[in-house]
Write a structure and sequence with these properties.
Layout lengths: L1 H25 L6 E5 L10 E2 L1 E6 L2 E2 L5 E5 L1 E9 L7 E2 L6 E8 L3 E9 L6 E2 L5 E10 L12
Parallel strand pairs: 1-9, 7-10
Antiparallel strand pairs: 1-5, 2-9, 3-4, 3-6, 6-8, 9-11
């Protein structure tokens, strides 16, 4: 009798755990998200060059190839990697710039540095480039543990 009671308790416990795990697994929530990327190399195409993300919403980050983000507005700080021979500014003029990206669901945004070729920039003139969204494309975003901000 005692053994039978223990068996029923164990069976009940296993059934409870099984139901709990099943309900957890079936309640995966979809979080609308988009991707902001800085890995593509425009290679000077139309005066666009690679840029490296240094800050996200004012907070320093270790630069990554892409950021999976919930839908919303974000400010990215970029450092340019312009390698144009006509760039004549001093190293001290080569600072960071910001770009605001409004992330929409299932969209990928490619960041770049736009080299301004309207005139020759020299000396300490830091107006020679602009942080921009170079390309935007449809991209199925799958929110997961990689989601920045979670």
């Amino acid at each position: 009798m005692w053994l039978r009671a223990k068996s029923f308790k164990l069976l009940g416990f296993v059934a409870s755990i099984s139901l709990l795990l099943t309900s957890c697994a079936s309640q995966v929530e979809y979080a609308p998200c988009g991707v902001v990327a800085a890995f593509k190399n425009p290679a000077g195409e139309d005066s666009y060059y690679r840029a490296v993300v240094t800050h996200l919403n004012g907070m320093p980050v270790i630069s990554r190839p892409y950021y999976i983000l919930p839908v919303g507005e974000y400010e990215f700080t970029l450092a340019e990697l312009i390698s144009a021979p006509q760039l004549k500014v001093s190293l001290s003029a080569r600072g960071t710039k910001t770009v605001t990206v409004i992330v929409e669901d299932d969209t990928r945004y490619h960041l770049a540095a736009k080299f301004k070729t309207d005139k020759i920039y020299a000396g300490k003139n830091s107006d020679y480039w602009q942080a921009v969204v170079w390309q935007q494309e449809s991209y199925q975003c799958e929110a997961s543990s990689q989601l920045v901000g979670n």
